[in-house]
Amino acid sequence: MDKTRQAALKAAYRQQAPALGIIALQHLPSGRTLLDRSRNAPGALNRHRFELALGTHRNVRLLADWRRDGAAAFRLAIIDTVKLPDDPAFDAQAELDALLALHREQALAQGQLLY
Fold it and tell me: DSSP alpha helices (H): ranges in the chain?
């Protein structure tokens, strides 16, 4: 690949908006899950992973499970995403809030434990 094509691809990648979405951190032995929303879902997963590894995560019960069972006992994933429409009036935060509420409702209806 020539340098100009590579530079154009890098520039296009940098201009992409990060994925808006819902993330889940599931403790596999207990099935308990933390659901969260973010305007940058991959970044939020990295932040949670980093805070857990550092021992500074704000969810005390999740942190205790992480310390006791380790990273191998968890599944971290982006479970849903929101595509940004071209409409400038689109309220992404409201959409994320509604989607998070929906996922929480579904999890509770299935008897899943939440942090």
Answer: 3-15, 41-54, 60-69, 92-109
- Record the tokens describing residue 36, joined without a space: 């969260």
pLDDT tens for 19-32 read 899 999 999 999 99
Give the Cα separation of 36 and 55 in Å (integer): 19
Q: Which of 36-42's residues contact partners 24+ apart within 8 Å by CB, and which partners?
A: 36/100, 37/96, 37/97, 37/99, 37/100, 38/96, 39/92, 39/93, 39/96, 41/78, 41/81, 42/18, 42/78
- Please name the amino acid found at residue 53: A
Dihedral angle, C-alpha 23, 36, 102, 91, nearest 10 °: -100
pTM over 0.85? The answer is: no
Query: Residues 44-72: pLDDT tens digits?
Result: 999 999 999 999 999 999 999 999 999 99
